[in-house]
Structures are given as C-alpha cells and as structure tokens.
C-alpha cells in the first residue's frame, strides 16, 4: 500500500512538466543503439507513445547508417565515406532508400503501433515534402535540404498520428537524395516551429574535452555551441548534431538536446523530470551574427503542380 | 541517478492505464473531507488537472452539507433532517445555493485554476441544465432530477475546460431545488454516457458488514449492489451513493467506484495503477429486471423556449 | 381590429433599430433597484431575452452591494466603507462571493431562464477570466482588473447563450478579489470590442448639476465626461460609472449609456426607439491626450498553464 | 414619454411569439395585390425583413399572373385559360419566365434589399431545383412539380439570405414549365420541412359559404379542408391554395395560413400577435386515409450529373 | 483501336494545362453569336461544364443587346444609342431586366444544367451584389459599377455551382441600372481576384489595324493595350472590352483574352492547348502610371443593413 | 488550325465520362510490366495524375514480385513458391518489406510526384491500417487481410493527395505479413466503398479459354466470374485477380476491370472513352448465394489503443 502511494507521488511529480510541454511539438532524431537494439527500440517507442498520450506532438526523424552498411556488404557493394559522409552511387541510393524506408522506418512504426494505431511512416519524397540538392558531386546522391513542405506532416499530426520520417529527399531531377538525418531533424524542427529538437545518440552528451568523460556539459548557450563547431572541440560524430542544433535554434526552435538513447527512458527523463539528462543548448536568435541568407526558407504549405 | 530511473519506470508503468482511459469521460462526485480540508482539496485538484492533461475528460459534481450547516447555524436557522435529507425552506434554499454555488464551487474552481485556466463552475440552473421536481412536500425545496440537458457541459468540455457542477436544480416553478449530489453525479454520468463515475467519500469503500472494517469489498456486481440496497447491509451514508451507482450502471455507465478521498491521490491510484483502491461496481444493463420506466430520460440538447 | 393594426405599426417602427443593432455585442451593467426588486428584475430579464432573440448579444455584469450588506449584518460582520469602497476582509470576501455568485447571479440567471435555457452564470474566476490585483492594502480583498481573458465569454455567446458575470476576480495569490462591477463592465466591454456598454442605475442619467434634477444631460462627448470626472460635478455614485464609460470609450467601445433601470423596459427604449432615454456618452479615442500606458491590455485568448 | 412606454409594452407583447417562431422556416406564397401594388409590396418586404432579423427563416415563392397577362396583351399574344390555368405555348413560356424571373422576382428582391443585402432571387430551374412534368398536353408548357432539390435554397438560408423563388420548373426536355405558384409554395414547404406555409391573397380567408362574407372561418382541421376540396364549397381561386395547404400538411408542415395581404402588416399580425388573422388549417398526417404513393418525394440534396 | 490510342494521347496532351489551371477562377464574358445562336450556346455550355469538372471555377457574366432590341421593337419602344450605349428609360429598364434576367440568363442556365445541376443564375441586384451609379443623365438608367460584394458569388462557387450573372446593378435609389457587361466582367474578375478574364465575341481578337484582317495580334502588353485605347486603333465594339481588360489587369488579374466565340470550343482551345487562339493581354500593375484613386474598391464581404 | 479543332472535339468527347466518374473512388492494383518498365511506369503515373485532376480519387495498391525475387537472388536467399505463393521466412519478410515499401512504392510515388506534390506512400502497417493473419503455416509470413482501418487512406484523400499502398499487413504478433496485392486491392475497394477496382496486368483480360487468345471476354457477370473460379477456366495468374474481383463486387463495389497495363494510357481508355478495353465484371450482391459470414468486416475508423 505504501508502494502505491509512492507511485502516485511520482506521477504527481510529473504534473508541472506535463503542463509545460502540453500541446508542444518535439522533433526527435532517433539513431544509434536505440535504433538497432530491438529492446531499446521498444523502450523508446513506449516513451514516444506516452509523450503523445499526455499531450506532446512528437515527430520522429531517422537515418540508418549501420543497417545500410550491413546490406551493402551483403550485396558486396563498396562502402566508402568522405568526411564522414557515405559515397552514394545511384545503385547505393536505391538500397539506402530500401533500408531507410522499407526496414528502419517500418521497424519503428511497428514498435510504436504495438501500442495502437498511432504511427504513420513517410519518406521525405512523399508529396515532395523534403526537397534536396546535391551536396558534393564526389558524394553522388548525397543531398542537402533545400526546402521543406510541412503540409503532410501537419496533417498527420492534426489527424492524431505520430509521423515517422525517413531522411531521404526528392531532387529536382526526379531522383532521391540520401540526407544526413541530423540535418533533416534540425530543418524539420525549424520548419514546424517546434519547441524543441532532441538527438538520441549513444553518448551522454557534449564534452568540453571529448577525450575526458568527466567533462560532460549539462547546458550551454547557442554562442558556445557555435564556437565549438569551429574550435575542433567536438567529436566527429557530434559535428552534424551540433550544427543541426545551432541551425534549428537560429530558426526559432527554443531548445536542443543531445541525449544518450541507451539510458532507459531517456526521453521521459528529459521531458518529465526536474533534473533532465544529457546536454541542453538554448539560444537567442536575435543576438546572432549570422548573415541574412542563412535564414530558413520553409516552403510550408506552398504546393505547385 | 538510480532514483531518476526509478521515476521513469513508474511513469512508464502508467502507460497502459493512460491508453485505456484516454478520451473517456469520468464524472467525479467530490465530497467529504476532500472538500472541507483545504490541503486535501488542493491535492484532489492536482489529481484532476493531471487527469485532464493526460487525456481524460473529468466532470466534477459536488454538494456541500457541512458548509451549509455551518452557515445555517451562524444565521441561527433551524437545521433539521428527515431520512437523512435536509429540510429546506425557501429561506434555507437561498443559503444552500449561496454556499454551494458561491463558496464550495468557487473553492474547487480556484484550487483547479491554480494550475491554469481550466475549471468553469456552473450551477444546475445555468441554461436550465438540471431540471428538478419536489421530492417530498415535507422537505420543502429538496428536489429530484427530472431531466438533464447536457449542452452546456459538453460545450465546456469541448472548449477544453473542466466543468464543476453545483448540485442545485431548476424547478418548473422558477425556483431552485436542493438535490442530493450523489444523485446528480449518477444522473450526469448517465446523461453524458460517461465511462465511469467515482464517488469520493471518507470511508474506504463498501463493507459486507459495515460494522466490520475487515469486510471491505473490492468489487461487486450490479446485482449484488442492488440487493444491498434492500437488505439493510449498507450504512446510511452509502445508500444514496450505491443507489446512484446502480442507477448510472443501469443507464449504460460501465463502472462505478467508491473511494476514500482522504487517501492521497486516490483518484490517480484508481485510474492509473493496476491495483486500484476502494470498491468497484460493474454491471450489465441487459440482465436487469428493473421496469422500463426506470430508464433514464435525458433531454440532451433538447432546448425549448 | 384597429388595435391590432396599431400594434403591427409599432412593431414595424422598431425595424430600423433592430437592423442597426443586429449582431452587435452590448455589455449591460445590472444594478440598483433593477437588481433588488423582484418585479423589476423579471422585467429587465424579459428585455434582455427580447434583445437576444432579435439579434443582439447581451453580456450581463453585476455586483450586489445591498445584498452583501444585508448578509454581513445578519452575520454581525463589520460593514465599513473607505472612499465608497467596501473594506473586505478575507472572511468578508467569502461572503461577498457567496452573495454575488450564489445569490445575485443565480437570481438573474433564473429570471432569464424563465423564458428558456438562455443564461449561463459565471464568476470572474472561472477559467481565470478576470485577473485582479489588490487596489489598496487598507481595503483588503478589494481588487482592480488587471487582465481579462474573453475565451469563456465568447464561447458562451457563440454557443447561443447569454453570459451573466459576477464581479469577482482571480488574484495571483489564488484568492478572490471583490471588484467594482462598474469597472468590470467597462473593461469587459473593452475586451470584447463591444459596441456599447449600458449602466442600469436608479437615477435618470447624469446631471449638469446633480443637485438640480432639471439639468439632466441627454448626450455628451468623451471629453466632457472626462472633465466631469475631475471637476466635482458628479455625484459620488456616478464617479465609477463615468470613469468606466470613459475607459471603455477610450478602448474603442462606441457608446456608453447611463439609464434609470426603474423605468419599465428602459433597455428596450434605449435600444429600439428613436428618442432613447438617459445619458449617452460618445467619443473618439484618437483625440485623447491620455498617456499610452492607459491603453487596455486584454489577454484575450492567451492561456498559460 | 407615456407614448414611449406604450411602445415598449407593445414590443414586449411580441416576446412570446418571437420565442415560439425563432429559428423556424416559413414559406410565404406572395401574390395578389401585395405583389402588384408597389406600396403594399414595400410594406410586405419590410415585414419579411423584420421576420428575418428576429430569427425566422422566410422563404418567398411567387407567381405573377396579372403582369404576365399585361405583357402578353402588349405583345398581342393570345390569353387563354382552361380550368383556371393559363394555356402556355412555348412562345408564351419565354414571356412567362421573363416576367416572373426578370420582373416580378426582381421587384420583390429590390423591395427587400432596400433594407440591406438580404434577398437572393432564384428561378426554379437554377441548379435544376424544381423538376417539373407536363400537366396536360392541351395546356402546353404548364407543369407540375415532380421533385425538389433543396440544396440551393438551404445554402442561401444558411448563408444568411432570404431566397425569393420564381415558380418556373425545369423539364426533362431541357425546357421550362410554368407552374402554379400555390403548388410550388406547398411543395417547397414540404421539401424544406417548414413549420408553416402562408398564402398571401386578396381575401380575408376561407368562407364556409363563399357568397356569405360573414362566414369567414378562423380555423379548421386538415380533414375539414380536405372535404371542402370536393364539396364545391370553395371559390375557384381558393382551390389550388387549399389543395396546396392539404398537401403541405400531409407532408409534415404543421400549419397553413390563408391571409389577406392587403391588410397592412398581415404577416406580422399572423406571426407575432395573439389573435392572428385569416384562416388557419392544422392537421395530423397520421390520421389520413390517403394512399402511400401520395407521400412527398423530395430529392433533397440528391444531385446527379 | 489505333483511333482509341490517338484519343488517349490527346487527352494526355491536356495534362499540363489542366495542372496549370486547376483551382483557378476564370471570369467569362459571354456575348455575341455564342449567346444568340442556340447551337453555339450549347457548345459553349459544354465547354464551361468541362472546365468546371476538371478543376477550374468559371464565373459567367452576360449582357444581351440583340434580344433587348428585339423585344423593344416588338413593344414599339424607341431604340436609341448615344456613344454606343443604349438610352434606357425607366420603362426600358424594366424590359432590359426582364430580357437579361428572365430570358438570356435562364437560357444559359438551362444550357449548362442540361449536364446536371450546376448553374445558378443571379442578377447584379441579388443581395445588392453589384452597386451602380448613373453614368450620364442623358442615358437614363445606364450605370457604372461603383462597388461589388462578392459574398454571394463566392458562396455559389464554394457550394460547387457555376454562377451566371446578368449585368444589371442596384442603385442607391432602389432602382436598377443597365450596365455594360464587359465592364461587369472586368470588375468582377478584379473583385474575385480571378486569374483570367475571357471575352467571347464574334471577331478573332484585336487587330493592329481593324480594317486589315491580316493584322490580328496574338499577344500584347498592358501598356500597348492601354495606348490603343487612346489612339483610335480600336474598333468601337472593342473599346469597352479593351478598357475592361486594362482595368482588370490593373487590379491584379493576370491575363485577359479576347476570343472568337463562334469557333467551336474556343474556350477549351484557349485554356487547354498550347497554341491558344485570339488575343492575350498581360500586364504588370506595378509599372503603371495610373493615379491611385483608380485602384479598385471591392466591398467584398462588407454587408451593411 | 484544323488540328486544334480536332483536339478540342476529342477533349469534348470525354465530357460524359468525366461527369460519370467525377468524385468517385477508384482502387487501382498496379502490377506487371507497368511496374517494372520505367517508361510504362511514368505513363501510368501521368494517367493517374490526370484522373486525380479531373475529379476521380485514385487509390493505388501494389505488390512487387519480380523485384523481390531479384533481390532475394542477389542475396542468395532461397526463392520458393507453394501454390503460386512465395514462401516467406522472417528473413525474407524483411527483404519483402524493404523492396515493396522502400523501392517499388517509392518509385511509383516519385513517378507521380514528378507532376507535383500529389502522392503519399504508405505501408499496410502504418497506423495498423491493414491487419493480417497467417494464411498457411508452411508459407511463413504470408498473410491474409483480416481487417482494414481506412482512417489514414481517407485522410490522405481528403487532404488532396493520392495514397500509394504497399501490400504488407500488420500481424497481431507485431510482425509484418506479405499479402497478395490483388487481395489487398479488392479488400481496400470494399472497405472504401469504391465505385470500381482496376487490375493492371500484362494480358488483355480474361479468356473464355486461356489457351485461345481469340476468346477474350469483354464483359461478364458476377456469377459467371464466380463460376470460372471453380471450373479451372482461368490461368493461374488470374485466379487471385478474379477472386479479388468477386470479393469486391460481393461487398458492394460496382465494377471490376482487368486491363493490359502495357497498352499506352490503358487507364484513361477504360475510364474516359466509350469503348473501354479489357474485361469488365459487374454484379448484384443481392442475388448471391454466398453465406453471410463472407460479408466484409471493415473496422473502418475503429481505433483501439
């Protein structure tokens, strides 16, 4: 009986956070072990369902590096990276899309829908949602987001579902592009006017010195994060995440978080407890010295035939 | 840190119950110490707010016996009961309404609104919502529910608010009636097609033998509850509650609960944990031998000038 | 038969005024004998119902001074005024709210609903509609309007009902404040963007010299009214009314009227006949020399948890 | 001043009738002197506008016999009647439509719109609203209503306007038919589920003996009206009106009225005073011995290309 | 079989034009032989129906000169023109309206509705849609558009119908005005924010030299069209059309077309094939040197009683 | 110029078919060469876009046998069929889903979206849309449709998009099932209440004797098709198609078509020309001797968590 009262007290403790987060949109970049470990995947899915039911609008964005590499190796396709980006031939692009849209996306949709008919998987080329352009000719079908039309995502949210988005884009040439999922998450958060964007990864957050595990940073400002992008203080894997954080904050997102997705219920701890975990970046767009053309261009709702 | 993970696990434990209750309407008869003790009142208000934010539509119904008696005594008005019902002269009715609508209702509205603009207090005579007829000429302005128009309550719910209803009714003679709040809660649950009705009281539930505190009943069927109404097995204070439970179940409400409101977070424990507390009554309307004219007549939405 | 034709002609005469007023919102401060005299109350209620049915959206605001004093005296509580404002201890505030919300409000709601399910009574603290701050520490729980959230009032109007508002406010300390109903009426008219605000009182209007009953003023400008506030030309009871008129006109309300509510059907005569009665104040906000921070701050629709 | 109070009292006297009629649909067959006399036309238009503004949904149906005859004579076309019905050659049909749709309809629309943008004129062939079939080959383009699609009329009402309908119909052969406006009014009332249908004519109502002006009937039942159709008790001009009344009542319309439109404000007197004028027919569809296939077939909302 | 494949290929050829025009509003001034020749009328009606079904919102505007003259002559009324405009006495105005609203409008409505319940005919004075003022006292009831309220037209479109508008206007004196239909079409296109306005006439378009049939102009700019208005290069019948084109383009309409309506399916050829026919005028409002008060004043949606 | 007029005439010829099909839902089973041949795929995509723009609501369903086999062979997975159904191990199911959802679906979405943002790809497990159960334990993850929730499909249609559905289903065990796309198309048509279902294949339709190419059947009844299912008159590949046709017709779909998708614009020819192509099956559900439990159970809109 005492145990029951303790539980009730803990539920009650979440009330202020539920009030604070109610009705907000949160973009979650899903990646790392949370994606490949089936048990973690189901745990993260349950967290997302709970967030949805208590009033948050989660939007999931994912890539799928390890699965892509595994299938490329099974098919004896060359696996090559330049500056951390996968060289993506047209043949590889076909496989990238199959793995992202047909496997990783479906796995997460299934994990969420084990709780009820809540998730709808979409690819970035559905209704030409994510437009992309080639990033570097040497990388082949690797693209960058050039515009986002949020019509379909907003419809899915307002219909009561959770959109799960595979990070491929539609090129003007009719082909697809393989886009870094961190970038897609940051741009999607910006285009949706989300309150926050969360990056699930396998490390505990940002380190002042990434060789020193005791130097974890709990919170930092936009400017501090921006300066880390240029000082070499960041691990290679963190560069696109921090870049996406800075970009999203620059476009009006209020907070960005980098969390360790292998911690059980990391999302809930971040959203619904006082202490929080991982690294939080906050910012004031007004104080930025970025030039004007860096401003986000969301072609939201603009549809031409 | 371990502590945080325990908390997350407990939040997660509530997921199945949140899923089950999401979008449902629950009528809560608020009474007893939970109403008069300010600290308990704030605790119950927080529970109600949490229920609202995680997807339930709570509807609150209250009476206010002790406060009425206290004010009557201050004004040296005679306090008299017949068969447990307050003899209510027209002068007393004015005071009853003042206390219910102007004090008890407002106190609960304030307790809820400490969390945000969520509660809207209404009296049973707003828009002639609760129509009543005299119960017994010896009791004066004591009434029984004759019809309920749920238009205003449903509008308040769909506008995103929590209705808090004082148990007075509108008579055909233009005057008000003092109605037992247990009855109002049962009828309101029936008229709204609520999933459940909960009676907050000061005892732990129904006892097989109300003299024997070890005989608490966790669950019983509709038929068993009905037979208790006639066998004298019930304490006097429980008679109207069990009568209202039977009536509500008869009209399609799925479950009725009698809880001890002095247990901290009793509402949450009932709704969001496995074990539950108090006494639960369930029923099948089809098997009932009640005669037809006992069927509820809700004039829902039917408005004549 | 001739009589019938005369009646039809008189109905017809009202057509231009019905056209002019159709669809407009009119805030009516209900007070004086019209509130305490039951026969007058029913007459005013009928006028309000007729206004509603022919296309106006009436919003009723009321205080309840005499009834409060009567109950305080019955309970032997001290009755004291400073500068015409009731000193309101926390104990008195409880009684003030009981009388306003539980008696006066209900009486008017009942009078209107004798014609059909039309009126919904609300208190200023429902959904934290009227926010208030303490006016003067010596007066205790006497407050001033600091912000109005019109969500609930507008919902009630658009649902087809007549809101009847008791002039209490919600303080940031969780307690209630007793607010002058004239002020509430003026601020509510401003927050709703009402076309006009009408003050029902017991005198025929404003007098150039309030000692000289022959000096009744039919119409005056905003500037003239404003100067009367400072020249001592106004009776004490008129000061808050004229102040509220000036404030409402300053915030965009087109016309303010001060009427004698003891004249049968004074509201109809004002709204639906050529001649009108009482005193009308009109104004041009643009020409005002008031400083900027006097501008109304309506937190309409802004709801934070 | 006394005069003002008398007026207010008379306005107040209309309250019960306004309440009773509020939100109801009333079909008005406009004809006789009220149509040809410009002064009467403006008076009737004002009555209709007043009805609209105080909550009734008037729907106007008109023919235009005298104007048609006048134009036919100006154009030296033969004017011939068989059993009271105008023989309508295709050439005459063109003129009939011009006069009904282009003159009579427009004159009434203009008279109403002198009060504001309220009336929208439509012909029975707009959107194939009134489908008609030939009545009698000897009569040429004289038709009978075979089906009514109320889509356009209901849209006009819900858009806040007053539909003014010229009694022509669309034939399956692509041509128009000239339909008796009394029949159109009765069928339209039936198809719309109107509360009442009113026939404006030049006599005071039905007479027990139409030669005896003292035998005016104030009220009669459906069965009595039906029997008058066969006993020869009716004047020729009354036959189609009483037939349309019986038909409309048979299809669920509650009341039919035959009024003298030359009485100033006859419509208002009928709707908003106690005494009423003219003849009222009421009925109970259930008691009728008519065979089933007489039941109305409204193809309401059914649109095929 | 080959034939079928050719047909499919031609349907396919229209895809780019259907995509381009989908969801756009096109105002069509219907006139000339297309109006008086029954076979052409049915052909144009079919074109309009096809346009509607494939996603365009056509709005039809028409006059009716020849039919008016014919009826005036039959009635031996004087037919007189000043500067190409019909002198319109009040008696003539009655006939003008009868012919336009009761004959020409109905004929086109019937031709369209032969395909299904699609067209709703309205006159410019329905709901005071087209307000007009007298153009020249010598011309009597000839008017100019002073304001357009598009409420009724937009309602008809959004209800799924095709509005067919007769070019009469409502004067402030309660009477009607006869307005040049070219002007009405141009102003209506401007008020609706239409994408294009098309003038159906009996010649192939504009000629550089109207005496030289080989000098047909396929396309010209706004400025070129404007200069033709003053240089005398235009045939008299083209002056109001080109004036209306310039006016519409000046108010934001993107393109104006002058087509020969006697060419079978001229509308389809213009809208759905590459080559187009007739003369197209395009413009940039920004570069215009017209003075400010020439800007269109659409009282769209503004309804005062 | 003559050429232009011929084109217009052909466009006009499609009017009756556009009228007939406007607003209807058509389910298209996309398969065979039309799926694997890129040029044919773009041609079919253009046909679908044209159908959408002219008022039809196409819903696309696809499988992807050849691509699945090709990838299985590249990965050296065993390819085995039993009774024409692919033995699908859990490993194979992963690949099946990757190919269907990540490749075939995306290819068709891209082909359609080359015309604008029109197609949204979904898998049968999105929002648990298609529920499935195991068909035969020997076949592994091969499933049969047990229920369809059309919520997501209908939302996509009403948002203005074309749903493209990959034929995988969600099992109660949380895993996916590989379902025959013909069956999915038939069930989806039934669940949506579609007007027709079209099967695109590589042969010209049904043959009376499938060895005799001259025995093509243009039209047959439901009963005839049903009897072909049991007489062995059908080629193996036709069995599931004809079975799906019979099932869809049994559930209220009006017509089923089997077309040769390699014929250019076969969809347009079927929908928009008189002659039609392929085989059409029509039926009357009422006359069927099928037992009751064969009736379709669409859990449309029924969502339980």
The CATH superfamily name of the largest domain in chain A is: Acetylglutamate kinase-like
Helix content of chain A: 40-55%
Which strands sit side by side, in order, in the main sheet of chain A?
5-8-2-1-11-13-14-12
Structural class by helix and strand composition of chain A = alpha/beta
Label the CATH architecture of the largest domain in chain A: 3-Layer(aba) Sandwich
Q: Give the count of helical stretches of chain A.
A: 11
Could you spell the SSE succession of chain A in H and E letters? HHEHHEHEEHEEEHEEEHEEHHEHE
**Beta-strand residue fraction of chain A:** 15-25%
Tell me how many strands of chain A there are.
14
Highest-level CATH class of the largest domain in chain A: Alpha Beta
- Net shape of chain A: globular
Biggest interface, chains and residues, is: A-F, 44 and 44 residues
Mean pLDDT of chain A: 87
Task: List strands and helices in order, with pairings.
The structure is a homohexamer of 305-residue chains.
Chain A: H1 2-13, H2 15-21, E1 25-30, H3 33-36, H4 38-53, E2 57-62, H5 65-74, E3 81-82, E4 85-86, H6 90-113, E5 119-123, E6 130-134, E7 142-148, H7 151-158, E8 162-166, E9 168-171, E10 176-179, H8 181-192, E11 196-201, E12 219-221, H9 222-231, H10 238-250, E13 255-260, H11 266-272, E14 279-282
Helix pairs in contact in A: 5-6, 8-10, 9-10
Quick structural overview:
Chain A has 305 residues and is an alpha/beta fold.
Commentary on this structure:
Six copies of one chain form a homohexamer. Chain A has 305 residues and is an alpha/beta fold. Chain A folds into two domains: 145 residues, Carbamate kinase (3-Layer(aba) Sandwich), CATH 3.40.1160; 100 residues, Carbamate kinase, CATH 3.40.1160.10. Helices cover 40% and strands 21% of the residues of chain A. Chain A has eleven helices and 14 strands. Chain A has an eight-stranded mixed sheet, with helices on both faces. A four-stranded mixed barrel of chain A has the order 6-7-10-9. The longest helix of chain A is centred in the N-terminal third of the chain and has 24 residues. In chain A, 54% of the residues are buried. The C terminus of chain A is likely disordered. Chains A and F meet through helix 6, strand 5 and helix 7 of A and helix 6, strand 5 and helix 7 of F.
């Amino acid at each position: 009986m005492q145990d029951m009262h303790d539980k009730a007290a803990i539920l009650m403790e979440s009330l202020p956070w539920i009030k604070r987060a109610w009705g907000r949109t949160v973009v979650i970049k899903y990646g790392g072990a949370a994606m490949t470990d089936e048990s973690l995947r189901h745990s993260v899915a349950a967290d997302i369902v709970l967030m949805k039911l208590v009033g948050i609008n989660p939007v999931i964005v994912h890539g799928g590096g390890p699965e892509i590499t595994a299938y490329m190796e099974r098919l004896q396709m060359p696996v090559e990276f330049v500056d951390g980006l996968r060289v993506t031939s047209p043949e590889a692009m076909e496989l990238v899309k199959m793995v992202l849209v047909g496997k990783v996306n479906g796995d997460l949709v299934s994990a969420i829908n084990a709780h009820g008919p809540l998730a709808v998987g979409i690819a970035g080329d559905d209704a030409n949602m994510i437009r992309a352009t080639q990033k570097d000719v040497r990388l082949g079908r690797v693209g960058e987001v050039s515009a986002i039309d949020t019509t379909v995502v907003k419809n899915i949210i307002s219909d009561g579902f959770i959109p799960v988005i595979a990070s491929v884009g539609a090129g003007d040439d009719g082909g697809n592009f393989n886009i870094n999922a961190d970038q897609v998450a940051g741009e999607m958060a910006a285009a949706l006017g989300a309150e926050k964007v969360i990056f699930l990864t396998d490390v505990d957050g940002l380190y002042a010195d990434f060789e020193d595990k005791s130097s974890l940073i709990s919170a930092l400002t936009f400017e501090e994060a921006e300066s880390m992008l240029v000082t070499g203080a960041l691990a290679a894997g963190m560069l696109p995440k921090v870049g996406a954080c800075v970009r999203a904050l620059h476009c009006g997102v209020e907070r960005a978080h980098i969390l360790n997705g292998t911690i059980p219920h990391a999302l809930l701890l971040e959203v619904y407890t006082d202490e929080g975990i991982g690294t939080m970046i906050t910012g004031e767009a007004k104080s930025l010295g970025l030039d004007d053309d860096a401003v986000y261009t969301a072609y939201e709702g603009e549809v031409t035939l």
